[in-house]
Design a protein that fits this description.
With about 850 residues, the protein is mainly β. Strand 67 and strand 68 form a beta hairpin.
């Protein structure tokens, strides 16, 4: 199937330049004058370990067969943990204890040239071939993941125009090449390896989208290396996005989407791949392939000077699947990109061995392997894949296995369904039966006999032991980086005798445990002991592996109660003397682990009382309490002191600041300037000051009221207790401070539209709460909205407590359904206000529909 995509028109120099169109060459001393180095872009994947060595020895080829020296390594990633630990002549070492992808540019020279440097602070100027004098360069990417075999993504491409930015959805582009990107993966790093003045960033609103801006006036190819991470599961994906930048869109090419090259390619063979089978020039113009690139293999344009060339030269040193990215141009301004997948095979050691019932089974012999052993075979069988299998008789199979030091497996083994499942897992060939030691040929898939006297040959290598067990373990230890979890295993043979010098390894479901050794050889008693410490309190599973046998042990690192310390979470708030002030404490050990089995005691000699004097620490390592002021009336800010203490004696002292407060007369209209609209006619709202408080929302009846007392203090705290017979779903009200009141300005305040109208007209600073549809809250300063709309405040209940606080130039809103002010406000914005100019408290409401009556039952203020 062909995908028709918008292509690009390129003008000017550099539009068809290629970072990887031809191989790199290097020249130095006379002994290496004719040497040509070809450095491959390479990818590496590893599980968690203390360190990982990036071995480049198989990634750099010399035309003379000579050696190379790694001269410098540039760290392209922004992750600090990607820095180099050390460097050798043919590689470098990085830390591998955390989930990440690290990108590097490495430089190599013939061995006779300059010595290496640890890292490169800045690149020397490069030509289009990736050369700088005698240096050849390429990219190396390293993934550290809990699933190291699942880290590489198929390359994708996108287009944009000169001086125009583009946003590329990786989810959509990867879907086009058959990969479904889950929402759990987010972009954590983007790198521009070509060193252009382009910009690539993670989109601020969609963390699976890359925003790309090309350099000013640039046309051509740019490349983005990106990293997607699922931090919860310790997974990473490393991908490549190629960007084509041109002048205008047309429909010059149709390029087949990610086709597969028809022929298999043998390792180390150099093949010509004609891309004309995948590209159609819609206007009939001739075209040329001008760019080719691939990771972990070699791909180049065959003849860059031939304007009709459509051939890519490809080779790979290892079997596997490779995706070649390429670009084409018709030299009339039309430009587009594509990719082709190539399958590479190796006739030797094609499949992995199988481990079953403590025995090892060699991969089935190909003709090439049988010839290498010097063992005859009766016939051969050509698979759909390009491997030719050797078919052997009983005598031939016995001789072949003997030459390898093994034996032919029995019928019982090959007929076992568990062996069959391993054959399927390793994708062994099943077109013929497998030869047994009894001389029969077994179809391992069906579990029957084929009736032939020849078959594929796998050789069994018997184990030295038959038993593997955990003999002791400590199931818990303290998470203090010194108290160890210890596990001991026993390996014995079929007669029960200990087997020495056998390797046993251990892995963990957590990357936080530090093992003394992860691979231990059994001693003369057949025992192997493992020890590991951690500073993180958590449960984990240890998996111990010996050959094809596995044992698991569940263990737990617990917090260190002996080093538990209590900390009062700082709260700079000021509370009215009638408030319930929250106190939050955290209990952790020396390594920051929450200590959950402690008790926090609260005490004081000041005029305050606690809701509880003793509080148990919760699962998050926190103990919450509340405190009330119990002293006589105060006229200024007053500090009170209290202490918290653990059972082990650790303690801390904290303070709470109280402000004097006054209860507003919500039942007496004489202290309020007010009005309401009823049926379109404005009139007095005196009757809305009831024994239940101020009737703030009433069906089809907006109102406005101003407390007729001026304040000049820089801090103003208001607490409102709001009640209703039912949860409201209509209406809105505003609470605000305004500075324009002159005793008669109330007549100009509108009672139509929404509550925003009043606060805007009054040039007020405060909040508007809406109950229409989903609840929302907005903050205003001098009649203009500040910041965003805060959605879903917890106000639709029969009893709500609302704190509105203006502290100097900051407005904070706190909401709760119980009479305890939360330690963290629901909304907070900056608002310039006050400066000694008098201000008044105003409330207003608009209800243009039916609604339940809602009252301000109590309003309490503190100003200082």
């Amino acid at each position: 199937m062909f995908a028709v995509a918008a292509t690009l028109t390129l003008f000017g120099c550099g539009g068809e330049g290629s970072e990887k169109s031809v191989e790199s060459s290097a020249s130095g001393s006379p002994s290496s004058q004719s040497a040509t180095l070809s450095a491959e872009d390479a990818t590496y994947s590893t599980g968690y370990a203390e360190s990982f060595e990036v071995d480049l020895s198989s990634k750099v080829l010399s035309s003379t067969g000579g050696g190379f020296t790694l001269s410098e390594v540039e760290v392209l990633s922004n992750n600090d943990s990607c820095q180099l630990e050390s460097m050798t002549a043919t590689g470098f070492v990085i830390l591998a204890s955390d989930t990440k992808v690290c990108d590097y540019r490495y430089h190599v020279t013939p061995t006779t040239l300059a010595p290496m440097s640890r890292t490169a602070e800045a690149s020397a100027p490069m030509d289009n071939n990736g050369d700088s004098g005698a240096s050849s360069e390429a990219i190396a990417r390293v993934a550290v993941s809990s699933a190291p075999n699942e880290t590489e993504l198929t390359p994708v491409s996108a287009t944009t125009f000169v001086d125009e930015s583009a946003s590329v959805s990786l989810k959509a582009e990867l879907d086009n090449v058959g990969f479904t990107l889950g929402d759990e993966f987010v972009l954590t790093d983007v790198t521009l390896p070509f060193g252009r003045a382009s910009v690539a960033d993670v989109n601020p609103t969609d963390d699976q989208v890359i925003d790309y801006t090309p350099p000013a006036g640039f046309t051509g190819i740019d490349r983005i290396l990106y990293t997607l991470e699922d931090s919860a599961n310790g997974l990473v994906l490393m991908g490549v996005l190629d960007m084509a930048v041109g002048h205008e869109a047309n429909y010059g090419f149709s390029i087949q989407a990610n086709p597969e090259y028809a022929d298999w390619v043998e390792v180390n063979d150099q093949v010509d791949i004609d891309i004309s089978d995948y590209v159609v020039s819609e206007d009939g113009d001739d075209y040329q392939v001008v760019y080719a690139d691939v990771f972990d293999a070699s791909a180049s344009v065959k003849d860059p000077t031939d304007v009709s060339n459509k051939t890519i030269v490809f080779s790979a040193a290892e079997s596997g699947t490779y995706d070649i990215s390429y670009a084409v141009s018709d030299h009339n301004g039309t430009y587009d990109m594509g990719s082709v997948r190539v399958r590479v095979f190796d006739q030797i050691e094609v499949w992995d061995e199988i481990y079953y019932n403590l025995s090892t089974f060699s991969s089935p012999l190909t003709v090439v392997e049988a010839d290498a052993l010097g063992t005859p075979y009766d016939d051969s069988s050509l698979l759909e894949t390009p491997y030719t299998m050797a078919l052997m008789t009983l005598a031939q199979g016995t001789n072949a296995c003997s030459a390898m030091g093994g034996i032919l497996p029995s019928e019982t083994t090959l007929l076992d369904s568990r062996f069959s499942s391993r054959v399927v897992d390793e994708d062994w060939p099943t077109g013929h039966g497998y030869m047994t030691s009894e001389g029969s040929s077994v179809d391992v898939l069906s579990g029957g006999f084929t009736g032939y006297n020849t078959g594929y040959v796998t050789c069994e290598f018997l184990p030295a032991s038959k038993d593997f067990q955990v003999v002791s373990s400590t199931n818990s230890a303290t998470a203090n980086d010194s108290d160890p979890i210890e596990v001991e295993v026993l390996v014995s043979d079929s007669d029960g005798f200990a087997v020495s010098d056998e390797p046993v390894d251990v892995t963990s479901s957590s990357k936080n445990i530090n093992f003394v050794d992860q691979v231990v050889y059994t001693d003369d008693q057949g025992r192997a002991s493992f020890s590991g410490t951690s500073s993180v309190a958590e449960e984990m599973t240890l998996t111990l592996n010996y050959r094809d046998s596995t044992e698991t042990v569940d263990v737990e690192f617990i917090p260190d109660a002996t080093t538990a310390k209590v900390t009062i979470v700082d709260d700079d708030s000021v509370y009215a003397v009638v408030d319930n002030a929250p106190i939050l404490t955290a209990v952790v050990d020396d390594f920051g682990n929450a200590v959950t089995f402690e008790n926090v005691a609260f005490s004081t000699s000041d005029s305050i009382s606690f809701t509880e004097n003793n509080v148990s620490v919760n699962a998050d390592g926190e103990a919450d309490n509340a405190v009330q002021f119990t002293g006589s009336g105060i006229t200024e800010l007053t500090e009170t002191e209290y202490s918290v203490m653990l059972d082990n004696g650790d303690s801390q002292t904290g303070t709470i600041t109280w402000a004097p407060s006054e209860d507003l007369p919500v039942t007496d209209h004489q202290f309020w300037v007010n009005k309401e609209s009823n049926g379109g006619a404005e009139g007095s709202a005196d009757y809305r000051f009831t024994s239940e408080g101020i009737l703030i929302t009433k069906s089809f009846s907006p109102m406005y009221a101003l407390y007729d007392k001026a304040y000049t203090e820089g801090t103003f705290l208001l607490k409102a207790e709001i009640t209703s017979v039912a949860a409201n779903d209509n209406g809105s009200f505003a609470i605000y401070l305004q500075q324009s009141h002159d005793g008669s300005g109330i007549d100009s305040v509108p009672l139509t539209g929404a509550s925003d109208s009043a606060i805007i007209s009054d040039k007020g600073t405060g909040i508007v709460v809406s109950y229409y549809n989903a609840d929302s809250l907005k903050v205003y300063q001098d009649g203009a909205q500040v910041g965003t709309v805060f959605n879903n405040p917890p106000l639709s209940s029969t009893k709500t407590y609302l704190w509105f606080e203006k502290i100097n130039n900051q407005v904070e809103i706190s909401i709760n359904t119980v009479d305890v002010k939360p330690s963290v406000p629901f909304a907070s914005v900056s608002a310039q206000f006050g400066n000694g100019v008098p201000y008044w408290l105003a409330i207003s409401s608009v209800t243009n529909t039916t609604t339940h009556d809602r009252y301000f039952e109590n309003i309490r203020i503190s100003a200082y």
